[in-house]
Structures are given as structure tokens and as C-alpha cells.
Amino acid sequence: MPETSQNKQIFSLLEVTRSIQKTLAKRYTSAFWVKAEMIKLNHYSHSGHCYPDLVEKQQGKIIAQIRSNLWKRNYQRVNDNFLQVLKEPLKDGIKILFLAKISFDPVYGMSLHILDIDPSFTLGDLEKEKQETIVRLQSEGLFNKNRSTKLALLPKRIAIISVETSKGYADFLKVMDNNPWGYKFFNLLFPSILQGEKAIDGITFQLGRIKKVLAHFDLVAIIRGGGGDVGLSCYNDYELSKAIANFPLPVITGIGHATNETVVEMIGFENAITPTKLAEFLIQQFHNFAEPVREGERIITDFALKFISTEKQNLRSEVKMFRSACKNILNANKRHIITRGRSLYQGSAFVFRNQRKILDHVKTQTGRQAVFLLNDQRKFTGRVQLNLTEKLMAKINSEKNSLDSLEKNVRIMDPKNVLKRGYSITLKNGKALTSLESMEEGDQIETVLMAGKLISIVKSIKPKHK
Questions:
Q1: What is the CA radius of gyration of the chain?
Q2: Exposure string for 250-274, b = 16+ CB within 10 A, e = fewer
Q3: Sequence-separated (6 or more) residues with CB below 8 Å from residue 353
Q4: CA 344, 346, 349, 353 torsion: positive or negative?
Q5: N or C: which terminal CB in the chain sees fewer CB atoms within 10 Å?
Q6: Cα separation of 274 and 129, whole Å?
Q7: What percent of the chain has pLDDT over 70?
Q8: Are 106 and 18 in contact (CB under 8 A)?
Q9: What are phi and psi of 81, to 5 degrees?
Q10: Mean of the pLDDT values across residues 59-80?
Q11: Which residues pair with 113 in a beta bridge?
Q12: If pLDDT is split at 50, 70 and 90, which confidence band does 454 have?
């Protein structure tokens, strides 16, 4: 009951809050549907309860805000519905249509008690966001930009954005590394979260890192697997989609789900429903190059073998024809050769008979000429020998004179003869001095004269001035 003091009716705070509580309970007796943006879920894992912060915005400005509560049992049921319909859990930053009752507590104040949330409303809002991203990218000319990049003829250097422990990443590497054709690939992991709101910042950051070492890679692969269709709304985000659309290398995706394509998958150079299929796509690029080469090799080999076989056969035919022609020619000329041989024999016999007479005559004449020739030869030989003797003696005398001159010069340059003429030789450590470069004051030197040696100590050095 209120108190009265100095004609003033005074209520306690509890009385006021309980009055508000009763009034609201009488006024709002049933639940009603409300739409709002859930900026913070505030889920407490130890209790299982949630205390969502709800707002309404106009042109980015908050015009209404209220706290709410979602008890554990209702949260589990609602979250399961979201996973089934949206393939996304309840999370921060989504718009919801929820069934609630007004709740007022004297301690905690007024809030909305959430009984249920309609996932189809949120699905429609996410789809709306997706369509808005597509329209915006198209209007900016970015939707097909990454698809227009050129894929390397043999895309073997791959920058991978994935989670190191992801099953999809492991499946991708297994297919690539163990392909039966032995194609070799190089890959480097750039780790990032791949689902939920944190994936947007993580993937964008790793794209920036890859861009700094662009020359080392042929393409980028975003690989996610093992998560089903959960947490994919981040791939409809405009900023992430824009970063991929503008990336200078082809970006291929293997996000691993079976529902409608996300925007990132639409704008990427290539999309596969699983990481394994993405690996098969890259291997196929090698096939596209290797198979025509193998076919060309087979065609060239077959042609060469056929050509060699044909030429061998032609050679055998030519040899056979040549032998046959030679045999026919020999047979045709055999009789002529025999007749010609007889004529030659008869002519030879006549020549031999006449040759004997000629030889007898030559023999007689040769005997007479031989005597004259022998005498002339002796005279010629004598003259040659005399001429050679004279030339040899002249050469010997010339060389002897040269040797005498050299001997005389040697005697003149003999050190003993040089010393006799008043010269001396100065030695240091047994070696003749020719300059002052190695001399220092205090050095001991030896002077060789004709009559003996002098031992001296150097007191000063005076170089010759130029």
C-alpha cells in the first residue's frame, strides 16, 4: 500500500513495477508476430538460453530496440528448423519473424519472450540479399569479370584457401597427389574459416596475401568440405563476392553442397559441387593438353613405321629388278664376248711374235749406247761431287768464323776480366744488387774486387735523382 506523507501519496518501486507488470499482463494477453533484426543472439552455452538484442532500422539508423529471451527448449527447436530450412543456424545479423509475448519483470524490466521464429521469413530475406548482390555486381560490370581471366595451359601452381583439418581439403590433395597419370602439382595452403560470418573477413584477408605473391600461382582454389549446406550465406556477401570478381587470377570453388549456387560460386571461374570434383577438373586440364600430344606421338610413330616398312619393300623390289636386269644383259652379251675374246687372242699371238724381233733389235742397240752413257755418267758424277765439296767447305768456314766471334765476346764478358778492368760487384745475401729497393740502413753488403772482397755496413742510402 502507498504511504502518505505531507499530503503526498508515495509508492515503492516494487509497487510501481508490479503495477506495470499487471497492466501489461491484462493488456497483452496473447502472443503476436513481430519482425525485427537480431543484431546479437547472446547464446549462453552453459545454460542453453539466449537473450537476443532486437532492433529496427531506417536508412541504417536504429529507431527501436528491445531485449528478448529465448529459453533453451525453444532455442533448440527453432535452431533445428533453421538448419533444416535455411541450412544456416540462428546467428547474429539476420532478420527474423518471431512469435512473442510481452514480458515484464520487476528486476529485469520489459522484454519480449520469444516462443517461435519462422525460418521461411529469414530465408526470403537471405534470398533477397543474394539477389541484391547479384544485381549490384552486374550493374558494376563485375559479375563475369573473374570468368574472363585466362586459365594457364597447365594450371599446376595452386593457392588453396581452406581449413587445414578440413576433410574436403584432404580429399582434394588425395586426388591431386595420387592421380594415376603422374601429373605433378604444387599447392600452398592459406588457412581460413570457411563458414559463418567470420569466413567473409578470413577469405578476403587471404586473397590479399595471395595477391602480394601473385607471380607464384596460376589460380586460387577455395575448398570447403564436410560441412554440408550449413553456413553458406556468407558466400552471398557483396564485399566477398566483389573481392573474388576483381581477383586477377582464376578463382575456382569446391564449397561442397547440393543446394542452389551461392553468388561466389556463380562469379568464380569454375565451380564444383565437391572438392574431389574440383581436383578432377584440374586433372582434366592436363588431360586436355596431354591427350593430343599422346595422339600426335602415336600418329608419328605409326607413320614412321609404315614408311620404313614401305621403303624396305621398295628396296627389295629394286634389288630384285637390278639382279634380273644384270642377268639378262650378261646372257645377251655372252656370245659376243666369246667371239671378241677369240679375236683378241689371235691378235695377241701376232703381236707377241713381232715383239720378239723388236726386242732383239733393241737389245743390240742398247748395248752400244750403254757404253757411251756410262762414260758420260762418270764424268757428270765427278763434277757434282766436286761442286758439293766446295760448297760444304765454304759453309763450315762460315760457321767457324761465327763461333770464334762468340767465343771472343764470352771471354770479354767473363766477370774476372770485368774485375781486371777496375769494376766491382756488390752482393747482399749472396745476390748481386741491381737497385736500392731492398736496401735499408744497417744492412751488411759484400763488395767483390779482383784482389779480394770488402765487407761493409750501410750507413745511408742516397737514391739517384731524376
A1: 59
A2: bbbbbbbbeeebbbbbbbbbbbbeb
A3: none
A4: negative
A5: C
A6: 25
A7: 81
A8: yes
A9: -65, -40
A10: 92
A11: 69, 101
A12: confident
CB 218 within 8 Å of CB 241: no
Q: How many CB atoms lie within 10 A of CB 119?
A: 21
How would you label 301-321 residue by residue, b for 16+ Cβ within 10 Å and e otherwise? eeeeeeeeeeeeeeeeeeeee
What lies within 8 Å, CB to CB, of 373 at 6+ separation is: none
Domain 3-127 = CATH 2.40.50.140: yes
Query: Domain residue spans in the chain?
Result: 3-127, 140-287, 418-457
pLDDT tops 60 at residue 246: yes
**Locate cell 508490479: which residue?**
18
| 214: number of Cβ within 10 Å | 12
CA distances from 220 to 151, 156, 167, 385, 392 (A): 11, 11, 18, 102, 97
Q: What residue type is 18 in one-letter code?
A: R
Q: How far is residue 437's CA from residue 433's CA, in Å, rounded to a whole number?
A: 10
CATH of 140-287, one of 3.40.50.620, 3.30.420.40, 3.40.50.280, 1.10.3720.10: 3.40.50.280
Longest dimension (CA), the chain: 193
d(CA 200, CA 210): 16
Kindly report the pTM of this predicted structure: 0.54
